[in-house]
Amino acid sequence: MGLGRHKLVVLAVVLSITVLLYLLLPSGQSEDEVHKAEVPRSDPQSNANISVRTATLAGDWPTFYRETVPRYDGGGREVRGRVFAVLLLHGQAFTSKTWEDLGTLNILAEHGYRAVAIDLPGYGESMHALPMSSEKGRTEYLLHVMESLGTRQPVLISPSMSGLFSLPLLLQHPDRLKGFVPIAPVGTKSFKAQQYQQIQVPSLVVYGTRDTNLGSQSLESLQLLPNHTLSPLEGAGHACYLDHPEEFHAALLMFLSKLS
Ligand SMILES: *[C@@H]1O[C@H](CO)[C@@H](O)[C@H](O)[C@H]1NC(C)=O
Ligand SMILES: *[C@@H]1O[C@H](CO)[C@@H](O)[C@H](O)[C@H]1NC(C)=O
């Protein structure tokens, strides 16, 4: 009997703490925050065949309740809990590690974003995964990645080859992107002008001014997106973010700050 009462007391205490914690959490959390506990850095089950790389800052999912850079709304009040995910794809000759080496993952995390880079199927540590030969397959793959990461509406950064994945997603599921950052993506000509003109997703179109091939080619289609901002990197080539990382990061942060 005494033991039973003791258990009840423990239960009551645990319940109160749970309720208290719930009430103390900042309001207006994003769905990404809610999911963070369910997405360990490399869960082999939920991330089957998805190689994920995140910031290497202390804490790894660093700033869900503590934004290092405070953000303010129009009235000057501090805005909390508006963190969203930035999902980084990569080009043919690169992997998720490119974003780590360039410092992009850490810079994004330092600014309060949940930055996640993946190795696309057939690349880097996703070498063993089946290559995706169809547009539908690649779209479903990205939707699956987003689901595994617990993010419904990330900002998608997509250089070069990864356009094969990102463009079908953008054009068929625009509601699933908070923002789009194409960097001279391949595959823009697979879609009609009219399709681009219907997409309201805020987009930052990044390209190197020396990239006269894919850079200028993709620009023809991407500047049809109604809500786009151009970010030419002067004197940079195709992998313009590698040539001018500081300008790239500055343009990216400016774009992201307008999305919350
Ligand atoms: C995932 O990888 C395993 C091998 O480890 C492979 O058999 C399977 O087909 C892959 N699944 C996908 C969807 O790529
Ligand atoms: C265009 O995108 C910006 C963010 O870059 C956003 O603030 C603005 O509301 C968007 N405009 C329209 C018409 O959707």
UniProtKB/TrEMBL annotation:
Record's keyword annotation contains Signal: yes
Signal peptide residue numbers: 1-30
A GO term from the CC aspect: cytoplasm
Recorded coiled-coil stretches: none
AB hydrolase-1 domain location: 85-185
Gene3D superfamilies reported for this sequence: alpha/beta hydrolase
Localisation per UniProt entry: Cytoplasm
Keyword annotations from UniProtKB, A to Z: Cytoplasm, Signal
Keyword presence, Cytoplasm: yes
PANTHER family: PROTEIN ABHD14A, PROTEIN ABHD14B-LIKE
Family the UniProt entry places it in: Belongs to the AB hydrolase superfamily. ABHD14 family.
Protein name: Abhydrolase domain containing 14A
Source organism per UniProt: Leptobrachium leishanense (Leishan spiny toad)
Organism lineage: Eukaryota, Metazoa, Chordata, Craniata, Vertebrata
